[in-house]
Amino acid sequence: MRCNIRHIEETQASIKGSQQSKNLRSIVDHIRPFLISLLGTYRDQNTDILLQQAVRANTHSSVNQLQHESEILKQLIKRDDLLILGAEYSLDTGIIDFSHKLP
Q1: Claim: this prediction has a pTM higher than 0.90
Q2: By residue range, what is the domain housing residue 81?
């Protein structure tokens, strides 16, 4: 992964120094519970492992939200007209890693 904790800290510092975006605040608020639980679970791991797990937790959460919070999407999924999968794209390798297996 190209991003590391230093990048996150720099981003946080720049956000604090500027007027915060409501959209950015919404995204941060959405993933905060996952990050807090990961900090407890992976406290003794290096930052790359923690970041990788945070990305996976966010991907899983986003897939779950898309699958369950929209009536339109739920109906399409139910009729097998739509399949929502989570994936991670590596900026370093260009490889797409699907976090969910196909049913």
Answers
A1: no
A2: 5-98
